[in-house]
Automatic annotation (TrEMBL):
<keyword id="KW-0067">ATP-binding</keyword>
<protein>
    <submittedName>
        <fullName>ABC transporter ATP-binding protein</fullName>
    </submittedName>
</protein>
<keyword id="KW-1278">Translocase</keyword>
<dbReference type="InterPro" id="IPR027417">
    <property type="entry name" value="P-loop_NTPase"/>
</dbReference>
<dbReference type="InterPro" id="IPR003593">
    <property type="entry name" value="AAA+_ATPase"/>
</dbReference>
<keyword id="KW-0547">Nucleotide-binding</keyword>
<dbReference type="InterPro" id="IPR003439">
    <property type="entry name" value="ABC_transporter-like_ATP-bd"/>
</dbReference>
<feature type="domain" description="ABC transporter">
    <location>
        <begin position="250"/>
        <end position="494"/>
    </location>
</feature>
<dbReference type="Pfam" id="PF00005">
    <property type="entry name" value="ABC_tran"/>
</dbReference>
<dbReference type="InterPro" id="IPR017871">
    <property type="entry name" value="ABC_transporter-like_CS"/>
</dbReference>
<dbReference type="GO" id="GO:0005886">
    <property type="term" value="C:plasma membrane"/>
</dbReference>
<keyword id="KW-0813">Transport</keyword>
<dbReference type="InterPro" id="IPR050107">
    <property type="entry name" value="ABC_carbohydrate_import_ATPase"/>
</dbReference>
<keyword id="KW-0677">Repeat</keyword>
<keyword id="KW-0472">Membrane</keyword>
<keyword id="KW-1003">Cell membrane</keyword>
<feature type="domain" description="ABC transporter">
    <location>
        <begin position="1"/>
        <end position="233"/>
    </location>
</feature>
């Protein structure tokens, strides 16, 4: 399979063979060609060379409808569900059974078909529940049922565990086993090496648009897979010294923040972050993390409580004032909050500093200095393509993320508020970003880290809070707590063993 775009070969004569009734994982760096290959297989892109063969029959897909007709379904990373509609309505949407010669939808029959489908594959879903009232684990199952309802035999899942708790990940892998036992075939894209080794039968690694190897999962190691992905040895474990915290840099007291609907998203949260330490926050997306860090960073007003930065009350300060005072922010949504997508990298590198020296003087921007700054970020963080005149929209999501992280870390901040800093970033760049966070800590800077990746937040944090429904459930020692205990806390449940540290230490 070969697919070209202007100036780049995304897939270069890639061969991929997937056996029926197996789980096949697809690994690779950002820009390695994984998503392009899957989009070809799903009919979103037309290949320049090569062919797709399903059950021994060559097929040509001009659209996803052709792929679906051939038994290929795709579940995207961002769920494509209609929140006010029921589970049954979402699953049958666009393919509803009809009555009265097509004049009306047979809703009762649609519900019965969904119940039968759910029972056949061992899914536990309530067909009458509304999507807006169910958790992300159930939504994931609804997406899979949507594909199965349309007759999919091959299911492609893009980063399917990105927003799941460890227990929900385990449940999803149980679903994989049930589906493959019934002859279905699973292809899933993931950045998580352990999950690929746990769930897959075989693992294919793409690098630079080429297939650099397919290995049985039973014979794979994290180190070998990472080396295949990056082309060099990768340090997977964070090596850091004992923390020696100094003075308090950030102090948050009794913070209350409402979301856009007027609902209390952050409920009376208190925390502190000191010089030379990383304070981590773990939780399933949507439990108030976004509103919390946006209030701290100055992008959202606090409804109650106080935010102090380096001994000064900054609760009412603007984002610009907080940047000038030494607060950097890596946002959760790089496209919405971190970049102007139509700006080139020179302009994006200036964001937040366009009024300050050395990039501006007397209201005029020094574009030579701005270009030099962007070039340094691109070089230091291996942003691809290394072209500062490229618009942000032309970069892959992982390269957009690397640029935002590079810009914020280059501010020489006293505090970094980092929300999902390695989301969508490949293993090599993750290693680099982790090393930079560790270097900030060693240099006496304070870091507030929010991440849904448990391995990341445990390995980098000195103290770890777990957030659920807008409040801290517990503050734990990241080295002592287990992944299972964290998963229970993230679901709002208490583990049998007490894993708390002194709660006053977080205040």
């Amino acid at each position: 399979m070969t697919k070209r775009f202007p100036g780049v070969v995304a897939n270069d004569e890639v061969d991929l063979r997937v056996e029926r009734g197996t789980v096949h994982a697809l690994l690779g760096e950002n820009g390695a060609g994984k998503t392009t290959l899957m989009n070809v297989l799903y009919g979103l892109y037309e290949p320049d060379e090569g062919r797709v063969v399903v059950d021994g029959r060559p097929r040509e897909f001009d659209s996803p409808r052709d792929a679906i007709d051939a038994g290929v379904g795709m579940i995207h990373q961002h769920f494509m569900l209609v929140d006010p509609m029921t589970i049954a309505e979402n699953i049958t949407l666009g393919n509803e059974p009809e009555r009265w010669f097509g004049l009306a939808v047979d809703r009762e029959r649609a519900r019965e078909e969904v119940v039968d489908l759910s029972e056949r594959y061992g899914f536990d879903v309530d067909p009458d529940a509304r999507i807006e009232d169910v958790g992300v684990g159930v939504r994931q199952r609804v997406e899979i049922l949507k594909a199965l309802y349309r007759g999919a035999d091959v299911l492609i899942l893009d980063e399917p565990t990105a927003v799941l708790t460890p227990q929900e990940v385990e449940d999803l892998f149980g679903v994989f086993a049930e589906l493959t036992d019934q002859g279905k075939t699973i292809i899933f894209i993931t950045h998580k090496l352990r999950e690929a080794m746990t769930a897959a039968d075989e693992i294919t690694v793409l690098r630079g648009g080429e297939n650099v190897g397919t290995v049985p999962a039973a014979d794979a190691s994290r180190e070998r897979l990472a080396e295949l992905m990056v082309g060099r040895e990768v340090l997977l474990d964070v090596d850091r010294s004992e923390a020696t915290p100094g003075e308090t840099v950030l102090d948050v007291r009794d913070l209350v923040v409402e979301d856009a609907r007027g609902v209390r998203a952050v409920d009376d949260v208190s925390l502190s972050v000191r010089e030379g330490e990383v304070f981590g926050i773990a939780g399933v997306d949507g439990n108030g993390q976004a509103e919390l860090v946006e209030a701290i960073a100055g992008l959202r007003a606090a409804d109650a409580g106080e935010i102090s930065f380096r001994g000064r009350d900054v609760t009412g300060w603007s984002r610009r004032d907080r940047i000038d005072a030494g607060m950097a922010y890596v946002p959760e949504d790089r496209q919405e909050r971190g970049l102007v997508m139509d700006f080139d990298l020179v302009g994006n590198g200036l964001l937040g500093s366009q009024h300050a020296r050395p990039y501006a003087s007397n209201g005029r921007i020094d574009w030579d200095a701005a270009r030099e700054h962007a070039e340094e970020i691109v070089a230091d963080y291996d942003v691809r393509p290394p072209d500062v005149d490229a618009r942000a929209v032309s970069l892959s999501g992982g390269n957009q993320q690397k640029f935002v992280v590079g810009r914020e870390f280059a501010r020489d901040p006293r505090l970094v508020v980092a929300s999902h800093p390695t989301r969508g970033v490949d293993v090599g760049s993750t290693e680099f970003i982790h090393a930079r966070i560790n270097a900030l800590r060693s240099d006496g800077r304070a870091v507030l880290l929010v991440s849904s990746k448990l391995e990341e937040v445990q390995s980098l944090s000195d103290r770890l809070a777990v957030i659920y429904e807008g409040a801290f459930v517990d503050v734990v020692d990241p080295e002592a707590v287990t992944e299972e205990q964290l998963g229970l806390l993230m679901a709002g449940e208490r583990p049998e063993t007490d894993v708390s540290v002194d709660r006053e230490a977080s205040r």
